[in-house]
Automatic annotation (TrEMBL):
Residues 1-27 are annotated as: Disordered. SUPFAM superfamilies: Creatinase/aminopeptidase, Creatinase/prolidase N-terminal domain. Keywords: Aminopeptidase, Hydrolase, Manganese, Metal-binding, Protease. Belongs to the peptidase M24B family. This is Xaa-Pro aminopeptidase.
Length: 487
Protein backbone atom coordinates (compact mmCIF):
# COMPACT_ATOMS: atom_id res chain seq x y z
CA UNK A 1 0.00 0.00 0.00
CA UNK A 2 1.38 3.42 -0.92
CA UNK A 3 1.43 6.43 1.35
CA UNK A 4 -1.12 8.09 -0.93
CA UNK A 5 -3.47 5.13 -0.47
CA UNK A 6 -3.13 4.99 3.29
CA UNK A 7 -5.08 8.21 3.73
CA UNK A 8 -7.68 8.99 1.04
CA UNK A 9 -7.83 12.49 -0.37
CA UNK A 10 -10.91 13.75 1.44
CA UNK A 11 -11.44 16.93 3.45
CA UNK A 12 -12.23 14.81 6.50
CA UNK A 13 -8.62 13.59 6.65
CA UNK A 14 -7.28 17.13 7.00
CA UNK A 15 -7.35 18.86 10.36
CA UNK A 16 -8.59 22.41 10.03
CA UNK A 17 -6.41 24.91 11.86
CA UNK A 18 -7.56 28.45 12.62
CA UNK A 19 -6.27 30.94 10.09
CA UNK A 20 -3.76 33.15 11.87
CA UNK A 21 -4.57 36.85 12.00
CA UNK A 22 -2.07 39.65 12.56
CA UNK A 23 -1.94 40.71 16.18
CA UNK A 24 -2.34 44.37 15.31
CA UNK A 25 -4.45 44.05 12.18
CA UNK A 26 -7.01 46.79 11.60
CA UNK A 27 -9.87 44.31 11.19
CA UNK A 28 -10.66 42.46 14.44
CA UNK A 29 -12.62 39.71 12.74
CA UNK A 30 -14.78 38.57 9.84
CA UNK A 31 -18.56 38.78 9.92
CA UNK A 32 -20.58 35.75 8.88
CA UNK A 33 -22.02 37.76 6.04
CA UNK A 34 -18.58 38.72 4.66
CA UNK A 35 -17.29 35.17 5.05
CA UNK A 36 -20.23 33.85 3.06
CA UNK A 37 -19.87 36.57 0.45
CA UNK A 38 -16.22 35.72 -0.13
CA UNK A 39 -17.04 32.07 -0.85
CA UNK A 40 -19.09 32.86 -3.92
CA UNK A 41 -18.91 34.65 -7.25
CA UNK A 42 -15.51 33.46 -8.44
CA UNK A 43 -14.81 32.20 -11.95
CA UNK A 44 -13.30 28.78 -12.58
CA UNK A 45 -9.61 29.40 -13.26
CA UNK A 46 -8.42 25.81 -13.67
CA UNK A 47 -5.76 25.70 -16.39
CA UNK A 48 -6.25 23.22 -19.22
CA UNK A 49 -4.04 22.02 -22.06
CA UNK A 50 -0.84 22.36 -20.02
CA UNK A 51 2.33 20.87 -21.49
CA UNK A 52 4.96 19.11 -19.37
CA UNK A 53 7.93 21.20 -18.25
CA UNK A 54 10.88 20.87 -20.70
CA UNK A 55 12.91 18.64 -18.39
CA UNK A 56 10.05 16.24 -17.51
CA UNK A 57 11.44 13.31 -19.52
CA UNK A 58 14.86 13.81 -17.94
CA UNK A 59 13.53 14.03 -14.39
CA UNK A 60 11.72 10.74 -15.01
CA UNK A 61 15.01 9.12 -16.06
CA UNK A 62 16.70 10.51 -12.96
CA UNK A 63 14.01 9.04 -10.72
CA UNK A 64 14.45 5.69 -12.47
CA UNK A 65 18.19 5.75 -11.74
CA UNK A 66 17.48 6.61 -8.12
CA UNK A 67 14.94 3.78 -7.92
CA UNK A 68 17.46 1.28 -9.25
CA UNK A 69 20.05 2.33 -6.65
CA UNK A 70 17.76 1.83 -3.63
CA UNK A 71 15.36 -1.05 -4.44
CA UNK A 72 12.69 -1.86 -1.88
CA UNK A 73 13.17 1.37 0.11
CA UNK A 74 10.88 4.36 0.54
CA UNK A 75 12.73 7.53 -0.53
CA UNK A 76 11.63 10.96 0.68
CA UNK A 77 13.01 14.14 -0.92
CA UNK A 78 11.61 17.45 0.40
CA UNK A 79 11.71 20.83 -1.33
CA UNK A 80 11.97 22.73 1.95
CA UNK A 81 9.92 25.42 3.65
CA UNK A 82 9.81 29.18 3.68
CA UNK A 83 12.32 30.84 6.02
CA UNK A 84 11.52 33.96 7.97
CA UNK A 85 13.58 37.02 7.07
CA UNK A 86 12.07 39.33 9.66
CA UNK A 87 8.81 39.11 11.63
CA UNK A 88 6.22 38.10 9.01
CA UNK A 89 8.34 38.51 5.88
CA UNK A 90 10.10 35.56 4.27
CA UNK A 91 13.20 35.07 2.17
CA UNK A 92 12.51 34.29 -1.50
CA UNK A 93 12.05 30.53 -1.67
CA UNK A 94 14.45 28.27 -3.53
CA UNK A 95 13.66 24.57 -3.57
CA UNK A 96 16.32 22.06 -2.57
CA UNK A 97 18.52 21.07 -5.49
CA UNK A 98 17.80 17.37 -4.92
CA UNK A 99 14.05 17.94 -5.15
CA UNK A 100 14.18 20.26 -8.17
CA UNK A 101 16.59 17.91 -9.97
CA UNK A 102 14.21 14.97 -9.59
CA UNK A 103 10.91 16.75 -10.25
CA UNK A 104 11.33 20.10 -12.04
CA UNK A 105 9.02 21.58 -9.39
CA UNK A 106 10.15 24.57 -7.30
CA UNK A 107 7.35 25.24 -4.81
CA UNK A 108 7.73 25.39 -1.06
CA UNK A 109 6.60 22.50 1.15
CA UNK A 110 6.67 20.03 -1.74
CA UNK A 111 7.89 16.49 -1.10
CA UNK A 112 8.74 13.75 -3.59
CA UNK A 113 8.10 10.23 -2.28
CA UNK A 114 9.24 7.12 -4.11
CA UNK A 115 7.33 4.11 -2.81
CA UNK A 116 8.75 0.62 -3.44
CA UNK A 117 6.52 -1.37 -5.74
CA UNK A 118 7.53 -4.63 -7.40
CA UNK A 119 11.05 -4.24 -8.75
CA UNK A 120 10.89 -0.45 -8.80
CA UNK A 121 9.07 2.48 -7.26
CA UNK A 122 5.99 4.60 -7.82
CA UNK A 123 6.48 8.33 -7.46
CA UNK A 124 4.07 10.78 -5.82
CA UNK A 125 4.52 14.52 -5.68
CA UNK A 126 3.07 15.89 -2.44
CA UNK A 127 2.16 19.56 -2.78
CA UNK A 128 -0.04 22.22 -1.27
CA UNK A 129 -3.25 22.37 -3.33
CA UNK A 130 -4.80 25.66 -4.32
CA UNK A 131 -5.95 27.93 -1.49
CA UNK A 132 -9.25 26.83 0.02
CA UNK A 133 -12.10 29.23 -0.80
CA UNK A 134 -14.53 27.50 1.51
CA UNK A 135 -12.66 28.28 4.74
CA UNK A 136 -11.35 31.69 3.61
CA UNK A 137 -7.70 30.68 3.43
CA UNK A 138 -7.33 32.25 -0.02
CA UNK A 139 -7.89 35.76 1.31
CA UNK A 140 -7.27 35.56 5.06
CA UNK A 141 -4.07 33.53 5.33
CA UNK A 142 -0.72 35.27 4.80
CA UNK A 143 0.21 32.58 2.25
CA UNK A 144 -3.21 32.60 0.64
CA UNK A 145 -3.77 33.15 -3.06
CA UNK A 146 -4.80 36.80 -2.81
CA UNK A 147 -1.67 37.59 -0.79
CA UNK A 148 1.14 35.74 -2.55
CA UNK A 149 -0.39 34.51 -5.80
CA UNK A 150 -2.08 31.45 -7.22
CA UNK A 151 -0.68 27.96 -6.71
CA UNK A 152 -1.16 25.24 -9.29
CA UNK A 153 -3.90 22.76 -8.56
CA UNK A 154 -2.86 19.17 -7.99
CA UNK A 155 -4.32 18.22 -11.39
CA UNK A 156 -2.31 20.97 -13.09
CA UNK A 157 0.84 19.84 -11.32
CA UNK A 158 0.37 16.28 -12.51
CA UNK A 159 0.31 17.51 -16.10
CA UNK A 160 3.32 19.80 -15.66
CA UNK A 161 5.64 17.36 -13.91
CA UNK A 162 4.35 14.00 -15.07
CA UNK A 163 3.99 12.70 -11.52
CA UNK A 164 0.76 11.86 -9.63
CA UNK A 165 0.13 14.63 -7.07
CA UNK A 166 -1.43 14.51 -3.62
CA UNK A 167 -2.05 16.90 -0.72
CA UNK A 168 1.15 17.34 1.30
CA UNK A 169 -0.73 18.25 4.47
CA UNK A 170 -1.63 14.61 5.07
CA UNK A 171 1.89 13.29 4.38
CA UNK A 172 3.46 13.55 7.88
CA UNK A 173 0.74 11.39 9.44
CA UNK A 174 1.01 8.87 6.63
CA UNK A 175 4.79 8.69 7.00
CA UNK A 176 4.44 8.01 10.73
CA UNK A 177 2.37 4.95 9.89
CA UNK A 178 4.61 3.76 7.05
CA UNK A 179 6.58 0.54 7.44
CA UNK A 180 9.76 -0.77 5.83
CA UNK A 181 13.11 0.90 5.19
CA UNK A 182 13.04 4.66 4.60
CA UNK A 183 15.62 7.26 3.59
CA UNK A 184 15.14 11.03 3.64
CA UNK A 185 17.20 13.97 2.35
CA UNK A 186 17.83 15.90 5.55
CA UNK A 187 18.12 19.57 6.29
CA UNK A 188 15.14 20.96 4.38
CA UNK A 189 11.89 20.05 6.15
CA UNK A 190 11.89 19.58 9.92
CA UNK A 191 8.27 18.39 9.95
CA UNK A 192 8.93 15.58 7.50
CA UNK A 193 12.08 14.57 9.36
CA UNK A 194 10.19 14.51 12.66
CA UNK A 195 7.59 12.18 11.15
CA UNK A 196 10.39 9.78 10.19
CA UNK A 197 12.55 10.15 13.30
CA UNK A 198 12.23 6.50 14.39
CA UNK A 199 12.56 5.07 10.86
CA UNK A 200 15.78 6.57 9.48
CA UNK A 201 19.47 6.71 10.33
CA UNK A 202 21.99 9.45 9.62
CA UNK A 203 24.30 7.02 7.84
CA UNK A 204 21.65 5.72 5.44
CA UNK A 205 20.32 9.20 4.75
CA UNK A 206 23.83 10.41 3.96
CA UNK A 207 24.18 7.62 1.39
CA UNK A 208 21.07 8.97 -0.34
CA UNK A 209 22.41 12.53 -0.33
CA UNK A 210 25.78 11.42 -1.67
CA UNK A 211 24.20 9.41 -4.49
CA UNK A 212 22.03 12.35 -5.55
CA UNK A 213 25.11 14.58 -5.55
CA UNK A 214 27.11 12.17 -7.68
CA UNK A 215 24.23 11.82 -10.15
CA UNK A 216 24.80 15.46 -11.07
CA UNK A 217 28.51 15.12 -11.89
CA UNK A 218 27.74 14.46 -15.58
CA UNK A 219 25.25 16.84 -17.18
CA UNK A 220 22.75 15.87 -19.88
CA UNK A 221 22.03 17.96 -22.98
CA UNK A 222 19.23 19.89 -21.26
CA UNK A 223 21.50 20.85 -18.39
CA UNK A 224 24.31 21.94 -20.69
CA UNK A 225 21.85 24.08 -22.62
CA UNK A 226 20.65 25.71 -19.41
CA UNK A 227 24.21 26.38 -18.29
CA UNK A 228 24.93 28.02 -21.63
CA UNK A 229 21.84 30.22 -21.20
CA UNK A 230 23.10 31.22 -17.77
CA UNK A 231 26.53 32.06 -19.13
CA UNK A 232 25.14 34.04 -22.07
CA UNK A 233 23.05 36.18 -19.73
CA UNK A 234 26.06 36.61 -17.47
CA UNK A 235 28.13 37.91 -20.38
CA UNK A 236 25.46 40.52 -21.03
CA UNK A 237 25.48 41.39 -17.32
CA UNK A 238 29.23 42.05 -17.46
CA UNK A 239 28.68 44.28 -20.49
CA UNK A 240 26.02 46.18 -18.53
CA UNK A 241 28.51 46.80 -15.73
CA UNK A 242 31.26 48.14 -17.99
CA UNK A 243 28.80 50.60 -19.53
CA UNK A 244 28.00 52.16 -16.13
CA UNK A 245 31.42 52.20 -14.46
CA UNK A 246 31.29 56.00 -14.37
CA UNK A 247 28.10 55.82 -12.29
CA UNK A 248 29.73 53.25 -10.01
CA UNK A 249 32.65 55.65 -9.49
CA UNK A 250 30.15 58.31 -8.45
CA UNK A 251 28.47 55.97 -5.96
CA UNK A 252 29.97 52.63 -4.84
CA UNK A 253 30.38 48.93 -5.59
CA UNK A 254 26.65 48.59 -4.94
CA UNK A 255 25.90 50.24 -8.27
CA UNK A 256 27.76 47.38 -9.93
CA UNK A 257 25.91 44.82 -7.84
CA UNK A 258 22.54 46.34 -8.67
CA UNK A 259 23.35 46.62 -12.36
CA UNK A 260 24.23 42.94 -12.64
CA UNK A 261 21.25 41.92 -10.51
CA UNK A 262 18.89 43.67 -12.92
CA UNK A 263 20.14 41.47 -15.78
CA UNK A 264 19.82 38.36 -13.60
CA UNK A 265 16.22 39.11 -12.69
CA UNK A 266 15.17 40.13 -16.20
CA UNK A 267 16.68 37.13 -17.98
CA UNK A 268 16.79 34.53 -15.22
CA UNK A 269 15.53 33.56 -11.80
CA UNK A 270 18.13 35.37 -9.72
CA UNK A 271 21.87 35.60 -9.22
CA UNK A 272 23.34 32.17 -8.60
CA UNK A 273 25.23 33.43 -5.53
CA UNK A 274 26.06 36.73 -3.88
CA UNK A 275 27.83 38.86 -6.50
CA UNK A 276 31.42 39.79 -5.66
CA UNK A 277 31.92 43.37 -6.84
CA UNK A 278 35.35 44.03 -5.37
CA UNK A 279 37.15 47.23 -6.31
CA UNK A 280 40.68 48.14 -5.29
CA UNK A 281 42.02 46.24 -2.25
CA UNK A 282 38.65 44.53 -1.76
CA UNK A 283 39.67 42.28 -4.67
CA UNK A 284 42.05 40.51 -2.30
CA UNK A 285 39.09 39.30 -0.18
CA UNK A 286 37.92 36.11 -1.86
CA UNK A 287 34.22 36.42 -1.07
CA UNK A 288 33.76 40.17 -0.82
CA UNK A 289 29.96 40.48 -0.93
CA UNK A 290 29.47 43.61 1.20
CA UNK A 291 29.92 45.61 -2.00
CA UNK A 292 29.88 48.92 -0.18
CA UNK A 293 33.31 50.29 -1.06
CA UNK A 294 34.45 53.02 -3.44
CA UNK A 295 35.15 52.46 -7.13
CA UNK A 296 38.19 54.48 -8.21
CA UNK A 297 39.82 55.04 -11.56
CA UNK A 298 43.27 53.48 -11.58
CA UNK A 299 42.17 50.51 -9.44
CA UNK A 300 41.03 47.09 -10.59
CA UNK A 301 37.50 45.74 -10.31
CA UNK A 302 37.21 42.02 -9.61
CA UNK A 303 33.69 41.06 -10.68
CA UNK A 304 32.67 37.48 -9.84
CA UNK A 305 29.01 36.96 -10.71
CA UNK A 306 26.60 34.56 -12.35
CA UNK A 307 23.01 34.55 -13.59
CA UNK A 308 20.82 31.65 -12.45
CA UNK A 309 18.25 30.41 -14.98
CA UNK A 310 14.61 29.73 -14.19
CA UNK A 311 15.56 26.06 -13.85
CA UNK A 312 18.24 26.85 -11.22
CA UNK A 313 21.37 26.35 -13.36
CA UNK A 314 23.96 29.02 -12.65
CA UNK A 315 26.97 30.53 -14.36
CA UNK A 316 30.06 31.44 -12.36
CA UNK A 317 32.35 33.87 -14.19
CA UNK A 318 35.06 36.28 -13.01
CA UNK A 319 36.86 39.08 -14.80
CA UNK A 320 39.29 41.56 -13.28
CA UNK A 321 38.82 44.85 -15.12
CA UNK A 322 40.79 48.12 -15.09
CA UNK A 323 38.27 50.71 -13.94
CA UNK A 324 39.98 53.36 -16.10
CA UNK A 325 39.86 51.05 -19.12
CA UNK A 326 43.60 50.34 -19.19
CA UNK A 327 45.84 48.24 -16.95
CA UNK A 328 48.91 49.80 -15.40
CA UNK A 329 52.21 48.08 -16.14
CA UNK A 330 52.21 46.20 -12.82
CA UNK A 331 48.51 45.34 -13.01
CA UNK A 332 49.06 43.94 -16.48
CA UNK A 333 52.05 41.86 -15.33
CA UNK A 334 50.01 40.27 -12.55
CA UNK A 335 46.93 39.87 -14.75
CA UNK A 336 48.92 38.20 -17.53
CA UNK A 337 50.42 35.74 -15.05
CA UNK A 338 46.93 34.72 -13.94
CA UNK A 339 45.82 34.50 -17.58
CA UNK A 340 48.74 32.20 -18.42
CA UNK A 341 47.89 30.04 -15.41
CA UNK A 342 44.28 29.82 -16.52
CA UNK A 343 45.33 28.89 -20.05
CA UNK A 344 47.41 26.02 -18.62
CA UNK A 345 44.50 24.95 -16.43
CA UNK A 346 41.95 24.98 -19.25
CA UNK A 347 44.31 23.00 -21.49
CA UNK A 348 44.45 20.29 -18.81
CA UNK A 349 40.65 19.80 -18.88
CA UNK A 350 40.33 16.68 -21.02
CA UNK A 351 38.28 13.49 -20.85
CA UNK A 352 40.26 10.87 -18.99
CA UNK A 353 42.40 13.44 -17.18
CA UNK A 354 42.49 13.49 -13.41
CA UNK A 355 40.25 16.13 -11.89
CA UNK A 356 43.26 17.60 -10.06
CA UNK A 357 45.28 18.11 -13.25
CA UNK A 358 43.88 21.55 -14.11
CA UNK A 359 44.57 22.81 -10.60
CA UNK A 360 48.13 21.51 -10.61
CA UNK A 361 48.82 23.00 -14.06
CA UNK A 362 47.59 26.45 -13.03
CA UNK A 363 49.37 26.43 -9.68
CA UNK A 364 52.68 25.55 -11.36
CA UNK A 365 52.49 28.62 -13.60
CA UNK A 366 51.69 30.90 -10.67
CA UNK A 367 54.51 29.42 -8.60
CA UNK A 368 56.92 29.98 -11.48
CA UNK A 369 55.96 33.65 -11.70
CA UNK A 370 56.22 34.18 -7.95
CA UNK A 371 59.73 32.72 -8.01
CA UNK A 372 60.62 34.78 -11.09
CA UNK A 373 59.45 37.97 -9.37
CA UNK A 374 61.52 37.18 -6.30
CA UNK A 375 58.52 36.96 -3.98
CA UNK A 376 59.29 33.40 -2.87
CA UNK A 377 62.51 31.42 -2.90
CA UNK A 378 62.69 28.59 -5.45
CA UNK A 379 63.11 26.16 -6.93
CA UNK A 380 59.52 25.83 -8.14
CA UNK A 381 59.29 22.16 -7.13
CA UNK A 382 60.10 23.13 -3.55
CA UNK A 383 57.48 25.88 -3.60
CA UNK A 384 54.80 23.49 -4.85
CA UNK A 385 55.80 20.69 -2.48
CA UNK A 386 55.51 22.98 0.53
CA UNK A 387 52.53 24.92 -0.84
CA UNK A 388 54.33 28.23 -0.36
CA UNK A 389 52.52 29.82 -3.31
CA UNK A 390 49.28 29.55 -1.37
CA UNK A 391 50.05 32.74 0.56
CA UNK A 392 49.07 34.56 -2.64
CA UNK A 393 46.94 31.99 -4.55
CA UNK A 394 44.83 30.97 -1.52
CA UNK A 395 42.10 28.80 -3.07
CA UNK A 396 41.62 25.77 -5.29
CA UNK A 397 41.54 26.46 -9.01
CA UNK A 398 37.94 25.43 -9.62
CA UNK A 399 34.89 23.34 -8.78
CA UNK A 400 31.98 21.53 -10.36
CA UNK A 401 29.14 23.74 -11.61
CA UNK A 402 25.43 23.13 -12.07
CA UNK A 403 22.29 23.74 -10.01
CA UNK A 404 24.56 24.73 -7.13
CA UNK A 405 27.41 27.10 -7.83
CA UNK A 406 29.60 24.58 -6.00
CA UNK A 407 27.73 21.62 -7.42
CA UNK A 408 27.99 17.98 -6.33
CA UNK A 409 29.62 19.03 -3.05
CA UNK A 410 28.40 15.94 -1.17
CA UNK A 411 29.99 13.52 -3.66
CA UNK A 412 32.63 11.14 -2.37
CA UNK A 413 36.20 12.39 -2.61
CA UNK A 414 37.17 9.43 -4.77
CA UNK A 415 34.56 10.33 -7.40
CA UNK A 416 35.11 14.10 -7.29
CA UNK A 417 38.50 15.55 -6.30
CA UNK A 418 40.29 12.22 -6.81
CA UNK A 419 38.13 11.28 -9.79
CA UNK A 420 38.52 11.37 -13.55
CA UNK A 421 36.97 13.90 -15.92
CA UNK A 422 34.21 12.65 -18.23
CA UNK A 423 32.37 14.25 -21.16
CA UNK A 424 29.40 16.22 -19.81
CA UNK A 425 31.11 17.45 -16.67
CA UNK A 426 31.14 21.23 -16.24
CA UNK A 427 33.65 22.93 -13.98
CA UNK A 428 35.18 26.32 -13.37
CA UNK A 429 38.83 27.16 -13.94
CA UNK A 430 39.66 30.20 -11.80
CA UNK A 431 43.25 30.84 -10.72
CA UNK A 432 44.05 34.03 -8.88
CA UNK A 433 46.78 36.09 -7.24
CA UNK A 434 45.98 38.18 -4.17
CA UNK A 435 48.43 40.56 -2.56
CA UNK A 436 46.91 41.75 0.70
CA UNK A 437 47.14 45.42 1.58
CA UNK A 438 49.02 44.58 4.79
CA UNK A 439 51.42 41.99 3.31
CA UNK A 440 54.90 43.22 4.18
CA UNK A 441 56.59 40.34 2.33
CA UNK A 442 55.89 41.89 -1.08
CA UNK A 443 56.92 45.25 -2.53
CA UNK A 444 54.57 48.08 -1.60
CA UNK A 445 53.31 48.54 -5.16
CA UNK A 446 51.92 44.98 -5.17
CA UNK A 447 49.87 45.47 -2.02
CA UNK A 448 46.10 45.72 -2.50
CA UNK A 449 46.09 44.13 -5.97
CA UNK A 450 43.89 41.08 -6.50
CA UNK A 451 43.30 39.32 -9.82
CA UNK A 452 41.10 36.34 -10.66
CA UNK A 453 39.96 35.07 -14.06
CA UNK A 454 37.23 32.43 -14.13
CA UNK A 455 35.46 30.58 -16.92
CA UNK A 456 32.95 27.73 -17.13
CA UNK A 457 34.39 24.76 -18.98
CA UNK A 458 32.48 21.80 -20.45
CA UNK A 459 34.38 18.53 -20.85
CA UNK A 460 33.71 17.24 -24.38
CA UNK A 461 34.46 13.95 -26.13
CA UNK A 462 37.68 15.36 -27.62
CA UNK A 463 38.71 18.07 -25.17
CA UNK A 464 36.75 20.97 -23.72
CA UNK A 465 34.57 23.93 -24.62
CA UNK A 466 34.69 27.26 -22.84
CA UNK A 467 31.03 28.17 -22.32
CA UNK A 468 32.02 31.74 -21.40
CA UNK A 469 34.42 32.32 -24.29
CA UNK A 470 32.32 35.28 -25.50
CA UNK A 471 33.75 37.33 -22.65
CA UNK A 472 37.31 38.51 -23.47
CA UNK A 473 40.11 37.24 -21.24
CA UNK A 474 43.46 38.40 -22.63
CA UNK A 475 44.49 41.78 -21.21
CA UNK A 476 44.66 43.59 -24.56
CA UNK A 477 41.31 42.10 -25.60
CA UNK A 478 39.75 43.20 -22.30
CA UNK A 479 40.93 46.77 -22.87
CA UNK A 480 39.61 46.82 -26.44
CA UNK A 481 36.28 45.31 -25.34
CA UNK A 482 35.85 47.91 -22.57
CA UNK A 483 36.72 50.74 -24.98
CA UNK A 484 34.11 49.53 -27.47
CA UNK A 485 31.39 49.41 -24.79
CA UNK A 486 32.26 52.80 -23.33
CA UNK A 487 32.65 54.36 -26.76
Amino acid sequence: MTVAEELPETPETLEEEPIKQRKNGLYPGVSDELAENMKNGWADTELHGLEPVPQAARTAARRAALSARFPGERLVVPAGNLKTRSNDTDYPFRASVEYAYLTGNQTEDGVLVLEPEGEGHTATLYLLPRSDRENGEFWLDGQGELWVGRRHSLAESEKLYGIPASDVRKLPDALREATGPVRVVRGYDAGIEAALTDKVTAERDEELRVFLSEMRLVKDDFEIGELQKAVDSTVRGFEDVVKVLDKAEATSERYIEGTFFLRARVEGNDVGYGSICAAGPHATTLHWVRNDGPVRSGDLLLLDAGVETHTYYTADVTRTLPISGRYSELQKKIYDAVYDAQEAGIAAVQPGAKYRDFHDAAQRVLAERLVEWGLVEGPVERVLELGLQRRWTLHGTGHMLGMDVHDCAAARTETYVEGTLEPGMVLTVEPGLYFQADDLTVPEEYRGIGVRIEDDILVTEDGNRNLSAALPRRSDEVEAWMASLKG
